[in-house]
Task: structure prediction
Amino acid sequence: YDGLINQFLPGEYDPADFALRLAHKDVSLATALGREIGVPMRMANLALEEMTEAMNRGWENRDSRSPMILQLERAGVEIAVDREDIRAALERDGAANDNPKTN
Result:
């Protein structure tokens, strides 16, 4: 979930924790192996399509989660939560988990 907190919610995908080009390579290898041994890889193939579209936009050095931007664009929404709001929410959640009576 750190990727959600550090990148997706604030809408920041740079600098990359793990570059999209590396994730694309890994998923490409996995889907090729699946084809070779006859294992259906429908979701992996869909993920590879999304990664390929993001790569075609020149995002290869962005974080591997950057293809999520494509779906946000398709949905016509923007997610950009202020980092301070995220920190405050995490602190509140941590405090609530420390006090069993509030759960």
